[in-house]
Amino acid sequence: MSLLDDAFARKIAAQKRAWEMTHDQDKKEHVRREPAAPKMGICDKCHREALVRPFRSRQADKMDGAASYGTVIKHFCEECAPKSRAQKDAEVPQLSKKQVKNLMRSAKKGLL
Ligand SMILES: [Zn+2]
Question: Which end of the chain has less neighbouring CB within 10 Å, N or C?
Fold first, then answer.
C-alpha cells in the first residue's frame, strides 16, 4: 500500500458517501413504491373482511350514466389478488425446516 493508494481509497470512500447522500432521496422514493402492507378491509371481489392489499387496475366504469376511464384502486384479499407476472416470478419455493434452520444459524452468525 503506497500513500497514493491510501489517498485514492479515501477519495473513493468520500465519493461513495456523497453518492449515498445525494441518492438518499431516491432510496426513499423507491421504498414508497414497494407493495403496500396488507391491512384489514373488505375485499372488492369476494366482499369478505380480510387482510387486503390495494391494487391499481385500469378500467372503464359507468357511474350514473357517465363513463369514467382511469386507474382505480381495488382492494383484494390474498386469495383474490391478481398476480402479475413479476410477482409470480418472484415467488420463492417454500423452504424446508432444515433450510430455515440453516438460514437462522447464518443470520445469528452475522449478528455476532
Ligand atoms: Zn377476496
Answer: C
